[in-house]
Amino acid sequence: MGKPTLLTLRHVPTVTRIVVSILVLAAGFGVMSLLIATRVEAMRVDPERQAAVVPVFEAQRVVVQRPWQGYGRAEAIRRSRVPARINSVVTGIPDGLDAGVAVAEGQVLAELDEADFEQQAAADRQEVARLHAELERLDIEESRLSERIELLKKDLAIAQRQENRLRDMYEKRAANLADVERSERESLVLRRELVSANEALDGLPARRASTQASIEAARARSALATLSVERSRVTSPLAGVLSVYDLKIGENVTVGQTLAEVVDLTTIEVPVRLAAAARGTFSPGDAVRLVATSDSSRRWVGRVDRISPSDDPESRTMTAFVVVDQPEAAPNDPQTLPPGLFLSVQMDSHPSDPVLIVPRRAVRAGRLFVVEGDHLESRAVEIAYTVNGSPMDLPVEEWVVIREGAALEEADLVVAEATTLLRDGLRVEAHHLGSSGASP
């Protein structure tokens, strides 16, 4: 027999098709009735009469230390930029020096050409010697002028007496007028010479002072040239590590040009920005924890060195200066705190007065649940700050301090975890965490 076609199916009687459909439906209803008859009836529980078990603890006042967190960038307390102090040419560089190399205080970093300064110092020393000879010559000149003045005074006295005698003789007609005038001219010449000698003698102190000033100027130039010779040897002002060093033989350097930079890694300072509310809660000497923001595995311990007296009104922050001592610092040691590293800084306040604390998970949307008798009651609270650790003998690591004035009293039974299933009026059975050591 061949496969039935649509044409042959059309010839099946309608009654037959109806009977088959009824049989299929009857079988389906039979199976459904069997399943219904053999089903297991679940026990019905009245939710209003069933009590939910919730973990609770007694609210207590405890002494805590408020954690403060801030940020800062590490800076070396002792660092020095080594500039060129003369205009010269680099003539020598010690072997092995480069950025990252440790240097000792006074170690030579570079040598500059000092020939011009040595010649200048020698010339200035010769000038000083010449000026000293000039002072000696002035002393001799002063002595000679003094002797000459004494002689001129005597000659002038003689000439004046001769002039007076000739005048007397002229009045007595014993001498002519020409002799008198000649005697007057001789007296005038001697008087002019005496005045000139006195002027020369009076000018000697000024000449001596000028020569002495020239000596001091030459000495200063000589000292400066000698100092420039000393400055031609560039040395490290402190012990540390070279952070900048880029010199080449034959390079021209000018006054003020940075030749190297040395950083002392043994003492690092971190100016830390904290909330202004932290002022007064810690003191210099308190311990501080520092963590690299780029790698949380890198950690250091420091201490508060000093505190800035003023707050920043715009950011509402204060600044505390933290010092990290690392006497064994090495530039390639991951445990060495390098300058420039950005840090997250954590410190604890001084112990507070007793405060109410609850687990952080006990507060949801500003409310927590308290067990009153056999049912729950929600209360509005305000969180003051978060505390990490275990201030109470409970297996909870994150706690919050409840701000004073909240509707929470000491010894209230607080639900340890405020889930979305809890509501006001829900019948509960309190399960004390402290008694069994259960965790929320």
UniProtKB/TrEMBL annotation:
**GO CC terms, sorted:** efflux pump complex
Domain annotation CusB-like beta-barrel: ranges: 278-349
Q: Which UniProt keywords apply?
A: Coiled coil, Membrane, Transmembrane, Transmembrane helix
Q: Which ranges form a coiled coil?
A: 121-169
Q: Which residues cross the membrane?
A: 15-37
Query: Is Membrane set as a keyword in this record?
Result: yes
Q: Which InterPro entries does the protein's record reference?
A: Beta-barrel_RND_2, RND_pump_MFP
Q: What family, per the record?
A: Belongs to the membrane fusion protein (MFP) (TC 8.A.1) family.
Q: Per its record, how is this protein called by name?
A: Putative efflux pump membrane fusion protein
Q: Which organism is it from?
A: Mucisphaera calidilacus
